[in-house]
Amino acid sequence: MPEGVQTVFEATGEFVIGHPVLVSCKNDHDGLAPAAELESATKAKLRYANGACMAVEISGSRIRYTLENYVEDSDGLRFTLLLPSRFGAGGEYYIGDVASRPFPLIKGQQILAQKNASKITLLDFSGEGFSILTPEGFHEIQDYRVFDQPALAWIYNYQFDKYSKRTSFVFDIISFSPFPDASPPPRFIIDRFGQYAALDFPGKITDERQLREDADREAADLAAIEPPPRDPWGGFHGSRDNYNLRATGFFRIDRAGGRHVLVTPDGNVFYQLGVCCIMPDEGMTVVRGRERIFEWLPPAKGDFKAAWQNGDPSTGIASFHAANSIRKFGPACDDEAWSGRAVKRLRAWGFNSAGAWSRLTKTMKAVHFAGTPQLPLEPWMAPGLRPMQGAGRTYDPFQPGVEEVIDQAFAKQVAPHADDPAIIGWFVENEVLYENITGAVPAQKGDSPSKRRFVELLREKYHDDIASFNIAWGIASRTHASPSSFDALNDTTLFAGTPEAIADMRDFMRLFIETHYARVERLFRKYAPNHLLLGSRWQPGTASDEQLVRIAARHTDIVSVNYYTRVIFPDFLRRVSEWSNDKPLLLSEWHYTAVDQGLGGHMEVADQKERGLAYHNYVETAVALPFIVGHQWFTYADQPATGRWFEGLNGEGANTGLVNVTDRPYHEFITECRRTNNAIYDLMFQNHKSIPSERSSVNVINH
Hints:
Elements: E1 4-9, E2 13-18, E3 21-23, E4 35-38, E5 43-47, E6 53-59, E7 62-69, E8 76-84, E9 92-95, E10 101-102, E11 111-123, E12 129-143, E13 151-159, E14 168-176, H1 208-224, H2 239-242, E15 252-256, E16 259-263, E17 269-270, E18 272-275, E19 284-286, E20 317-319, H3 320-329, H4 335-348, E21 353-354, H5 362-366, H6 402-413, E22 425-426, H7 434-443, H8 449-461, H9 466-472, H10 486-489, H11 499-527, E23 532-533, H12 546-553, E24 559-561, H13 570-579, E25 585-590, E26 593-594, E27 604-605, H14 608-623, E28 628-633, H15 667-678, H16 680-685
Parallel strand pairs: 18-21, 18-28, 22-23, 24-25, 25-28, 26-27
Antiparallel strand pairs: 1-2, 3-8, 4-5, 5-6, 6-7, 7-14, 8-13, 9-10, 9-11, 11-12, 12-13, 12-14, 15-16, 16-17, 19-20
Helix pairs in contact: 1-3, 6-11, 11-12, 14-15
């Protein structure tokens, strides 16, 4: 429980009651986040920068919190539990014993309810859910979708009773179902096509015949589309001669017409119009343990075997998107057949390549549909790498023997593709939260290689004078016992709160970043000399660190940012470009979603037409910047309503796709995408002329 206490319920899913932040007053909206020291699977100590300490112990369905060290400026604790946005599709909540209230399907206001009570009950559409019994306190239900975070939230505020010295309290968690075991099962949530059963919307599939008719209609529609002239890779036809470019047989970067450009293996200008997650696995969802919420599941044998993960029903993981593709096109639903159909569509819609998390098949390579894989630098990709605690999705660069582990992983997973022209380049990693490392490393113990290296850096900076260090970090003023040596710091929870401490952490981060990126570049050039190093797919907050950008960009060919935004801010992107010493920039992940089929999600707009116009505005604004060389839309198909399989029972389940779960394209959305994509090279080189549109702006995208 590094982030909080995890609770698991059969059909409702997995939830985390986050470790509480310590607040100094009612209006302290930020509070102090704790550093969690895990003593066992059921016990932890939470330490706060002001010296407060709390013990957490789990016993069955009871969580006990005990404040072991009270600090006078502490007023109380604030707990947060996030619910997936699917609770808005028919879910409800009770605060105390008052009547239930429904979660809204469409976001509106932030605060949905507030009340003093000692119980909260949260239910999904099926009537399944749970109650949390708490001490009397202030409960809130908030809709985080107003902040473009696809979640609803329960927030509980516990105030310390300074007079009775109440320092220990419990949460009791009770699983809730409206039906006893002997009663009929609850009504299902998901129909036999993977759609929300209770919602009606235009174009909802109700029988298999509609899917077969879709296949015939789509074949005629695609045959009638005449795309603009392109080179075999989707590059700007004729630009090799127009801009005096050269062909090398691989993708590379260059300049043409006063801007950065990617160049195809044939030597033509290429603006990446990529789509992420082109693979049938993306539609997989966990069905085991909650079978009763589904109207139908694919049969274990016969034509629908491919709808199960790895063709194996025993995994308990299935895809309604795959099942619908089988109904629509027949049982050929392997990677090759599926990707062939997908690429035919994408090319007709103006997209020219695969983005991150796509499976680059032989079929895709045969038609010159290139891709962008990721280096094996996450521990699950390269066994032997030690996870970097607190940062997520990366390894500890100071781990002994780490160079050999990465070298072996690259030799096995990267080197075999060194001569593949269908690989544009490799991403270093994905959304590593470098900004969290400065808080995570000081709180770690001596078994962390990064913590030990950090302590050595401190020893060097303070010339082995622990008294000077204690003063600089303000330790003596916060605690009764100060570390007596630098060796003792290895197992001491530290908080960087003084200017000197912040400067020390910045020095450590400089060492951390340089060690990591220099190693990655060195080994990458060894095994993939023909391919581009595409950067780390940072989130905008991460990319706002000048030191990180400057160091990392020295070791990559392109800087990549997963740039989710309602409004493109050119000044932000220019700043990143300047910090990178004018490296090309790839917008490596983004999307807009709508709630018209019950999914919603991140960056919601009103409907599919608005999604298309938002796409138009985003791309037209981005391509006007001369250092942008492409973008990757996330994703090809909608995420399943019951969540992506690898995230458990409450994974993301949003309207991210070009097609929905029934494999039906969002035609209003795609019409705008195709019109924009087909004009991309005009936008790049003909004074960035605007694409004619039915509307000149989008309500939700305010320029």
